[in-house]
Design a protein that fits this description.
- By secondary structure, the protein is of the alpha+beta class.
- The chain has a domain of 218 residues: Alpha-Beta Complex (paralog of FGE (formylglycine-generating enzyme)).
- Helix content is 14%, strand content 15%.
- It contains seven helices and 16 strands.
- The chain binds 2-acetamido-2-deoxy-beta-D-glucopyranose (NAG) and calcium ion (CA) (2 copies).
- The site of 2-acetamido-2-deoxy-beta-D-glucopyranose has 2 residues, from loops.
- It is found in: Endoplasmic reticulum lumen.
- Pathway: Protein modification; sulfatase oxidation.
- One of its GO terms (molecular function) is formylglycine-generating oxidase activity.
């Protein structure tokens, strides 16, 4: 099956769909222009397949992508595996009860206005349970072994990896980059089992967040576990941990008493990560303190998919259990990642948000699940 991979972007080299690294690398944003719409460039990761000019996405033989993953991988659809599933369930994430209520969503003091962080508005969410941790490689592996699910990155044959964590042999084979964010490289063979490409593995990272999962992959996993993705409102309510109008899940100071509360980037992005918080890549889940609701890594470590379609327009009317727009092109992700630094990606705040096309996958994007009942 012939497939052409193209990188679509909005800034620089605007008339080209694919641009060679070097040709555009020089146009990288200067650190003196922080917090712009480009941010960490995470939102520039869009697949454009089959020529990259709006043509239909070609899929694998089994057409998995066109089937509703929430149905195909539901417990009911996998009855035959229910015995195995009983065992696998044991390694499901512990969940915590999030008692519903009213909260102020978004902010009237947006750090990145283009992201639609404002206006601040009253939102009610009903009670729900939430995984206390990001879904780990080990948990995802159990899902794969029971269902035989193949992720979108595995079908496409590549995924986006941050240049700074690639080995030289892998880097030397890559000729494309994302113009607006040249530190993102499409790596052949990168997927959840091989986070930095074929010469990497997850053997020593089973307790780290699973990466390179598309939105549909995340939905399939949650559905298999009898759970679902959180709405953006549920996620943000959970992030705030009961605090009102604070920047972070733990308050307004990034490092109270000199302590790190999340796996973020220290140093100069994208050239030098000092790893002052102990990690230059992902950390094992629950390596940093939980927030007031008992949730770990709700900001930092891996970005987390939500169920909402992306929009930057929000009503100021009070909302009850909002689920986002009925349709769209991008899905909302929340929380920032180990790659976020204030100068480029000040998105490890509860009100911050970003987006990706649902078929995107990258080395800093994962998820956690929620449910109405204890699982
Ligand atoms: C996984 O990676 C480690 C270190 O990068 C390497 O030593 C090991 O041999 C790899 N394991 C497999 C099964 O490839
Ligand atoms: Ca870090
Ligand atoms: Ca996270």
């Amino acid at each position: 099956m012939a497939r052409y991979f193209a990188l679509v972007f909005f800034l620089g080299c605007a008339s080209e769909v694919v641009c060679l690294q070097g040709a555009c690398g020089a146009e990288q944003e200067q650190p003196s222009a922080p917090e712009g719409a480009a941010g960490c460039g995470c939102d520039k990761l869009k697949r454009a397949v089959g020529g990259g000019h709006g043509s239909v996405v070609e899929l694998g033989e089994d057409k998995t992508l066109s089937a509703d993953p929430a149905v195909k991988y539901s417990t009911e659809a996998n009855e035959r595996t229910s015995e195995a599933q009983g065992d696998e369930k044991k390694i499901q994430s512990q969940m915590v009860w999030i008692s519903g209520g009213e909260f102020l969503m978004g902010t009237d003091d947006p750090a990145i206005p283009a992201d639609g962080e404002g206006p601040q508005r009253w939102v009610h969410v009903d009670s729900f349970y939430m995984d206390i941790q990001e879904v780990t490689n080990q948990q995802f592996q159990s899902f794969i072994s029971v269902t035989g699910y193949v992720t979108e990155a595995e079908k496409f044959g590549d995924s986006f990896v941050f240049e700074g964590i690639l080995s030289e042999p892998v880097k030397s084979q890559i000729t494309q980059a994302v113009a607006a964010a040249p530190w993102w490289l499409p790596v052949k063979g990168a997927n959840w089992r091989h986070p930095e490409g074929p010469d990497s593995n997850i053997t020593a990272r089973l307790d780290h967040p699973v990466l390179h999962v598309s939105w549909a992959d995340a939905v399939a996993y949650c559905s298999w576990a009898n759970k679902r993705l959180p709405t953006e409102a549920e996620w943000e309510y959970a992030c705030r941990g009961g605090l009102k109008d604070r920047l972070y899940p733990w308050g307004n100071k990034l490092n109270p008493k000199g302590q790190h509360y999340a796996n973020l980037w220290q140093g100069d992005f994208p050239t030098h990560n000092s790893g002052e918080d102990g990690y230059v890549k992902t950390s094992p889940v629950m390596s940093f303190p939980a927030n007031g609701f008992g949730l770990y890594d709700i900001v930092g470590n891996a970005w987390e998919w939500t169920s909402d379609w992306w929009t930057v327009h929000h009503t100021t009317d009070q909302q009850y259990n909002p689920v986002g727009p009925p349709s769209g092109t991008d899905k909302v992700k929340k929380g920032g990642s180990y790659m976020c630094h204030k100068s480029y990606c000040y998105r490890y705040r509860c009100a911050a948000r970003s987006q990706n096309t649902p078929d995107s996958s990258a080395s800093n994007l994962g998820f956690r699940c929620v449910s109405q009942e204890q699982r």
